[in-house]
Each structure stands twice: as C-alpha cells, then as structure tokens.
Amino acid sequence: MTEIANESDKLPAAVEAFVLHWGDLGGQWGVNRSVAQIQALLLLSERPLTAEDISEKLGMARSNVSNSLKELLNWKLVMRVPVLGDRRDHYVAEADMWQMASKVAQGRKQREIDPMVTALHAAMEHVDDPKISATVRERLHNMHEFVTTVDGWYNQMLHVPPAQIMRLIKLGSKVIHLLKFVGRKDASQGGGG
User: Fold this and answer.
1) N or C: which terminus of the chain has fewer CB atoms within 10 Å of its end residue's CB?
2) Residue 1 lies in a domain
3) How far is 8 from 2, CA to CA, in rounded Å?
C-alpha cells in the first residue's frame, strides 16, 4: 500500500476516492461525513496521524477534526497511541474488520435496541390492563418476542469467535437450503414449518 502520511498533503487518487466515498456512506449510516472520512483516512494510514495531519490531509477545520475524533473515540473505532519523542496525540483506526463491525453493532445496539427493549419490557408490565384491546396486546407480545429474541441472539453472537461467524456466513445459502428442506419435512409430517 502506498504511504499516505508522507510530507505531501496530496493523497493518492485511490485513497482520496475511498475517503470521499466512505464519507458519503457515513451519511447513509447516520454518521457525520467528516467522522466517516477521518475513519477512512486513519484506516488506510500506515502510521499514526495527529489531528493536525488529518486536518491538512482532508482540508478540514481543526475544530471539526477534534469533534470528529471524539466521536470516533466514543465508538472505539479510533485509539490514541503514543509516538516516541512527540507529545501530541496520535490516532490509529481499528483495522480488524470484525472488531470494527462488532464495535459499530454494539454502539448501535446500546443507542437503538436497548431503549426499545426497555420500553417494551415496561409496556409488558401493563399488558393485562383490561383497557388494552386484544389486538394491541397481541402486537405488544409479538414485538416483545421479536425484540427479546434478536437481543438474545446478539448476546449469544458476542461469544462466538469471528472465524466461526465467518464460516456461518459462508454457509449461508446451504443453511437456507437446509431450512427449506427441514420446513418441507416438518410440513409433510404435520409439524408446521
């Protein structure tokens, strides 16, 4: 890979294209464009970069870089690392794709799924209220079952080594075929599907 963090402020064309595209994708993921661009730059950098380096390379205001780095640090997608002989903070990105995906999933779960689980648990405490119709009660039960199942699955997956998850992903079409076969077999035996 080409050295990104050299004396020149010009990024190689492929790196610049990736940084710009990753920034655009960030908006689709609900992440600020600057945050995503900084993560991309650090992901492709062969050495730790300072906030000043990042600001120069991406042509961003120093305050924007600082705020974006704080967000990336909160997501644990970027880490501070010491550099011998330099007192400034230097940053590197999480480069392990499984770790990165896991940290993003964990952060999203904490921000999006956990509050929903809490709200549904609270609603379920009052689901037997006679003022609640059978339709609403059924919908609450269905949502509660779905969310707690997904939450439980997520918690199980935290303990599965990445290599095994990758094997499961690669087996995807075979597993789907097997599930269709098992479903047909259950249906033919009167077990549903």
Assistant:
1) N
2) no
3) 13
C-alpha span between 17 and 44 (Å, rounded):
12
The answer to whether 65 touches 88, Cβ cutoff 8 Å, is no
In the chain, count of helices (H) and strands (E)?
9, 3
Answer whether residue 118 is part of any domain: yes
pTM of this structure: 0.69
pLDDT digits (tens, 9 = 90+) for 53-87: 999 999 999 999 999 999 999 999 999 999 999 99
Residue 80 CA to residue 131 CA, distance in Å, equals 55
CA 43/CA 109 separation, integer angstroms? 23
Token pair of 20 as six digits: 């710009």
Closest CA to 37 of 7, 84, 2, 71: 71
Instruction: Tell whether 115 and 58 lie within a shared domain.
Output: no
Query: How crowded is residue 48: how many other Cβ atoms within 10 Å of its Cβ?
Result: 20
Residues 152 and 169 grouped into a single domain: yes
Q: Which helix (H) or strand (E) covers residue 90, if one does?
A: strand 86-93
| 99-127 exposure pattern, b = at least 16 Cβ within 10 A, e = fewer | ebebebeeeebeeeeeeeeeebeeeeeee
What's the domain range around 39?
13-93
Tokens of 25: 């994708």
Residues 89 and 17 in one domain: yes
Residue 4 in any domain: the answer is no
